[in-house]
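hi! just following up on the protien thing from before. the input was this:
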Amino acid sequence: MKIRLGAFILPSAGAPPAAFERGFAGQNPNYYQAALRDCSRLLTQLDDLGFDFAAFSEHHFHLEGLEVSNNPVMLGAWAAMLTKHLRIGQMGNVLPARNPLLLAEDLAMLDHFSEGRMMAGFARGYQARHVATIGQKLNAHSTAANDPQYAEHDRVNRELFVEHYEIIRKAWAEPLFSHQGKHWKLPPPGIQWNHPATRHMAPGMIDDDGQLVKIGIAPQPLQDPSTIEVCIPFTMSPATIEWSAQQGVTPIIFTPIEPLAKGCLDLYHSAAQQAGRNLAWGKGVGHFREIVVADTDAEAIAVMERGLGYIWTRWHDWFGFNEALRYPGETGDIPNTPACVRERGYSLCGSVDTVARALEHMIETLSPEMIVPWISAGPAPIDALLKSNELLVQKVLPKIGIELTRFKPTLRGDVTAPTWRR
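and the predicted 3d structure came back as:
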């Protein structure tokens, strides 16, 4: 059986948990340099091991240091220079708070920098501090389980998300386009642009009266736009799963709870079939997990508790992440402990044999074609993370008959010259 592995890397500041507790770790230049140093080692290793992609998140104002990842496209450009085969993604660009034209341009540039290895990840945004500040001119709101105005904020968020996604796809695919939506008029009316060079070199951009009537981005992506893989990370929302199935987008399911994950797969499969996409059950979908492998269970647990076990319980619980660990029908608080994250199946943590059994069960029950390990670069010791990845690929996967495969990008039909590095 073949599976794609993608790595989700925040990254966090390069420091042990005690340094975070002293405050303002995100603004410490030494910690950020350490994070880049650790991530560079991870990226080159993942490239060599056969991982399909690495992806970074988007979070702003992270003085706490737990998610110092404010520009995943810029991090991706840096990662592209370090690697040759690894695809470069985002988990994800927070679409409701972004200018979709600028993001379409940035991703197209990343595609060229990486010679066609860009994959696009779009998120709806759950951190109010970031979404409401960056997206204030768009009246953007975050969507988080602990928001008392969730219904209205979720409606506005989804409205912006869908329109921005439509604009990005148009910009990638159409040499010239216009857009008339609720939030954007592209181009705006009344722009005079009666330039003779434009009339000659970009016919159709202006009308007979010299009014700008269409726009386009340059460059467009190196890949054939219809084949670019798009992911929606950290989702359990039925509306998002149905939309993803209809659009041919890959949702990365967040919950490890088997009945809930199976419900997400059932919904995606049904919606895909209704949209005319003939997919086998479980395909077209990815799954998040943390995977930590060490020589012994105790050693792996120690690494996990310094990494995701610290980040999750110190930071993410406040945003309702523990709801992804809730069993159907369960009431009351979910224990906010590293042990709970492990015991409920989000963190597959242990020796080669322990992780092999856990992965084998996951594969038997969910039929995944993509698994996205969350690698806690920053607080977790980098040598232990590198060893974990090596054991996973060289020991665990062969033990259960799994081979790694990679998505093969398709370049535009008019690409004839060698790419820049070749």
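Residues 150-173 form the longest helix (24 residues).
The domain at 2-175+218-404 is CATH 3.20.20.30 (TIM Barrel).
cheers
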